[in-house]
Amino acid sequence: MNALASSPSSDRRSPAEITLIAATYAIVGLMLVLPPVLVFTEALRSGLAAALASITDPDALSAIRLTLEMTAAAVIINTSFGVLAAWLLAKYRFPGRGVLVALIEIPISVSPVVAGLVWLLLFGTQGWWGEALNRIGVTIAFATPGILLATLFVTFPFVTRTLLPLMEQQGRDAEEAATLLGASFWRILWGVTLPEARWALLSGVLLTTARAMGEFGAVSVVSGHIPGLTETMPLHIETLYNGYQSVAAFSMAALLAIMAMATVGMRSLFEARMRREEPRKAETAGGGA
Amino acid sequence: MSVLIENLARHVAGGKLVLDDVSLHVPDGAFVALVGPSGAGKTTLLRAIAGLDPASSGHVEIDGRAMEGLPPRERNVGFVFQNYALFRHLTVARNISFGLDVRPRTSRPSRAEIDAKVAELLALIQLPDLGDAYPQRLSGGQRQRVALARALATGPRLLLLDEPFGALDPMVRRAVRTWLRDLHDQLGLTTILVTHDQEEALDVADRLVVMQDGRIVQDADGETLDATPATPFVMEFLGETLRFPGVVSDGLFIPADAHVSPFSTNAAEGATEALIRPHEVTLRADAAGGAAKRVGRRGPLERLAVSLGERSVEIERPVEAPPSGPVALEIAQARLFQNGKPAVEGNHPWSDASAVLADVVPEPV
Asked: Domain A48-288, what architecture?
């Protein structure tokens, strides 16, 4: 009884507590809830039909398709590399490991615009390799390969970052047990390592998806903003907005927001699953550690 | 399945020797415990046998077959990890059948055969109804048994256990220990167990291999270890030990402490240390002796603190009337060490124990 009465979740709260909670709600409402609400309101200002019409415009459709393609490619490539990197970093100790872990974080801390500029510097027509590549018919800057590179760079850390702590915590025991039971390398990867980390992996994949769909800065620099060709959804929104096509801009923004929110929603669902499994896991390992 | 280890060494990064010239023979059907403090190399040795940690040099043979170059997955040894390492995403039944499920199609038993094997193992570990449960739902003792069943599913004849009782509470520990020993006998296994708990080892194993700093210090059954420990460390590791420094002179061990009677010995002259268990003494009334008082009691035994002038020691004896006055200590049996080595000829780890223990005859003073 005493413990209950003194817990912070009791009915009687101090004025300070009430103020803090109210302030939190106010800030979250202002910063996080209001913007999407405004986006949807603006999108539907001329009615649903106008919003839908603006989304089915050929340039808009091209932007949507390009975004989906780039996202799919980035997710597939970065998931494969992310799993590999996390596995390597978690299970092995080798010289330079710490440097690698730090390097993986670079895309999170570096401004995407800088990343975009680097790709331009390398692959632009004035760039180091741009001309040589152009001569053999490969165009990277102001074309889809450049957009993919920019997206890959920006979303590179997410799978690794979500997997690494979990894999480190899990250690090698389960894999070693599988080895001793006669399982091959691939069997262990598919049958033990990845399933054991599946919620973290899904979470990382979804984070990559959300980030890839919304990436603006790096893509903006390398893509060249060619409507119908190299414009992804975020770039197209900017173009529309700058052209005073506010309904079209907000309709596209609303669609992007829905896609992102669906991704984030799925992710929190999986994270909840993960957390529900993890405490028990910690208990299993706790006795031995 | 016998295990033969010859001159095994393992260095880790930094050049540290975690296994230092280890040789060990475990005959078919034996139950051997590797004991020693943390960092002694017990788990490293076990992992080297399984092939999980490569050795720097030396030779490992299982059942007469050299293990060099044979990957762990082809050794078919049952291994139980300290934290069980169950697959959390698989049911108990699929955990147990894992070793069969991963076999190539040509050598994999049929689904029905695998299911029958799982049912048989579930019955063996006395958890017949838990096949569909996930490991998270099981208690520590249950997980431990599932880990064992999983290790046994592929029919290994050699079982390696790394601190298998470490995470269990004391009540469950005792039960699982007995059950494990029965299982070993029933299935005709060869078992090597790693533990830092010497009592557990004495309880369950035929033979104890005492390790320290990557080396095997002594390899013998419990009785021999107690009677003729190879070093003071072995003696102390196996139980409470009282150490009496002194010298041997003219065939007598003369303790440095006051109120301890000398006794005759055939050890060489010089600085010597006598090591005894707390119950290996008798008290003799002695007006010039030290005070003795009861400090504890457990069952039929009592503990007395006896003052030896500079220090006091705690001895153990059957409960009787407290001493009426000052007492002197008479050592009933002792292991003598000089420079950390057994001092008495024949007091050698591999010699007959009885001959050595008999050498102490209290000298009338």
From this structure: Orthogonal Bundle (1.10)
